[in-house]
## 1
Amino acid sequence: MAKVNCIRCEKTQEEIEGTPYGGKIGQTLQEKICNVCWKEWYEQSIKIINEYHVSLRDQKGRDFLATQMKLFLKLETPEDETAVQVEDTPPKP
């Protein structure tokens, strides 16, 4: 398996297994993100979907999740968007 210089963790690690996305973004992910960071994003994306009740049937939900992915993986840093973080344990009431 090939190695990539990951822009998120700044380490040289194994590339993403399989094809995470199609098109240009998929190619960028393959070239710039390691498998470890991709797995971390996958876990975080599940938390975001559940916590924020993101509907992937809706284009707005898919766009929100795609933006969060780009921010999490440091693919872009738009100034008008902030990355959401979901903790492993819910806050105490």
Note: The chain has a mean pLDDT of 87.
## 2
Amino acid sequence: MSQPSFDDGDDGGIPTLGVGELAEAINGALRRSFADGVWVRGEIQGWSERGPHAYFRLVEESAEGKASVNVQFFAPSRARLKPLLMKHRLRLADDLKVRIFGHLDFFAPSGQLGLKMSGIDPRFTLGELALQRDDVVRRLVAAGLYDRNRQRPLAVAPLNVGVVTSLASAAWADFLHEIERSGLGFALKVVDVRVQGERAVAEVTAAIRALGSSPALDVVALVRGGGGRTELATFDHEAIATAIASSPLPVFTGLGHEIDRAVADEVAHTALKTPTACAAALVEAVQSFQGATEEAWADIARRGDLRLAGAVGEVTDIAHQLRHRVLAAVGRSGERLGQRSLRLRSAGRQVVERADRRLGEACGALRRVPRTLDPESRHMEAVAERVRLLDPAVTMARGWSITRTPDGHTVRSASQLAPGDLIITTFADGTAGSRVEETTP
């Protein structure tokens, strides 16, 4: 390797430049080499805005390593490119792949080479977003996740709703207004998340997983307001799409994009264009159930009325038949009763006459009874006299007595007693107790 010789002040014919001259020489060379400007592609990193100007680094990763160039996006160029970006609904931000046009410039005070951006190719960015989106969709299909959430059954009346949104956004206000306007008994459980920026993907993913595993909910709604196509790219992220596809609950999306469709919409159970439409779909589902219920009850009432009317008619017919039959039966019974009354009166007279005859005969027999009873009466008087004479009281009145043991047994023999036994002697006018001293056979 050769280098200039510095002996005796000899510089080998190579001029010595001041720093300013070197900077001017570099810029001159850049202008000559890139007189018409240059298109550069890469990924935006470090996006920052200082007043009306914006600054970032354009980065490219390759097998050889990482390369970057500083980009200045000054206010005049921003104002001129704003309509183009708005037309394609692009918003420049970190991690966005772009193809931009500009002129190279070496900035002497900082000694840095930069690119002054003055143009952009929107189709390149949109194409890159589409490619990324298609890659995510292909991976979801391969994993069997693409249609999984659409197969989740939706509750017949999804009144318990988990909502993933930014509470500070108009999207939440629109969603809530539509729900409240319905007058139905919705119960909302809201998780406040960022819907754009570096933390959006992680927060949205975590919220969907948390709400999707709640047994108290019927459905999860993911809503955000409108924005640029690059902002919608958050909802093309594979983590969010996987969380939606794997959710045990149906997921409704209302991402506020009338034209584009995010991967989140692709894998959701039901995708709506706006937060208001998302809320309206839930309201419609509940109202449909309510209408079906009311119609079912009305049909039950109609069928009940028809059956009741038919039963009333049948009962009326049966009542008329019963009336005719009862009247006929009563008529027949009246006739039989009349006939039986006649027979009863006739039979009654015969019975009375027979009874009268028997009564007369009985009276005659009774008149003969005294003559029949006289001998018997005299016999009875004789028997009574004999009984009177045999009465123990009469016998005892003549001096006889009765001896008993304390337990009431009559003592009829001296052999029944032993010395020391207590005996009770009954006289005509009382009793006396004594104790046996001896017995003699």
Note: Residues 281 and 354 are 102 Å apart (CA to CA).
## 3
Amino acid sequence: MEQVIVVGAGLAGSEAAWQLARRGVPVELREMKPHKMTPAHHTAYFGELVCSNSLRSDQLENAVGLLKEELRWCGSLIMACADAHRVEAGGALAVDRHAFAAAITETLRSHPNITVTEEEVTEIPPDGPVILATGPLTSEALSDAIRRRFPNSRYLNFFDAAAPLVTFESVDMDHAWFASRYDRGTPDYINCPMSREEYEAFWQELVTAQEAEVHGFEDAGVFEGCMPVEVMARRGRETLCYGPLKPVGLKDPRTGREPYAVVQLRRDNAQGSIYNLVGFQTHLRFPEQKRVFSMIPALEHAEYVRYGVMHRNTFLDSPRLLDRYYRVREEERLMFAGQITGVEGYVESTASGCLAAVELARRLAGRPPVNFPRETAIGALALYISDRSVANFQPMNVNFGLIPQLGYRVKGKRNKNAALSQRALDALAGLELD
């Protein structure tokens, strides 16, 4: 069988190499460590966790818990090593990071179908099947090569500025209404009003809230060209009221008057299940975002599927470039996996590597692809990154907002999420992966 080149031995690349090798596909795994290190990495291990040692919730009432269970069903190496080297962390799956990465490394290096080449890849391999899984800190040389390959599309390598996302069902519509400014066109926005007293309390907390630290591989350029909402607020008490929170042309149907300030939410997916806070790109710590933004009456109980971020990121404009199998639409031999595709998080990166490898192994064997349905977490992520209707593409963690709702009422959020997870696992049982 034709050999596959996998570039990058992070979580996505390691999972992809494993899934291919266990299906009898010969793999050359190219990894630049230890000869060249990124500022975020410190060991020669594959699958090194560069930030937290937590893979987040392990409960089926949480979307990432469902994603983990789906990966276990797929025979994931990353999940097997995580389960074997678990440390106590309540309902989360946290690992002994060194033992975890060492186990991944030993498994891949000792597999008879995997050859490890320790070198920096500076060009996209010109022939044969390739999975590029080089992560958000892709080397400058390879990043330039990818940019040259897609000259007519956005290849994004910059300090990412993204506003928080909330689920529609968690917005208190008793304190909000649908409308476009001056009632022009269709009522596309959810408008969340604040009185003067509510706004001034919100502003005071916003300007004094704690910001996230800047990492060593970032710099002050993070804020250039896209001002965080908290920085804008510090320019004056009323600045936001003349910017993203201006109420002009928005009459509250409850009062018939323009509010003192209005936070607008804009639909972020075709299903209308997720909305973003317009103009709220921010560098605040995640707990601070939840605390301060919950002072907006309509968002008091909002469920955040992604917090605002401003950090260095390298990712493709995947909806225009990739299909649901993480293949380049115009060059199917070339695939991407991991955070470079716009999935966000350890487990999500692993899932992309798993799906890409499953698809590639079947294609090399002359078999049809496996279509993970949208009802599954793996399928929902793949369909999100390949959805051409997404105009302003931003990286995303897995969340139940990406998955179709049940179509019937279940009392209680945990019970509803558990039902969504059970439906996903039932759908997986009907798939043939090998």
Note: The two ends are 15 Å apart (CA to CA).
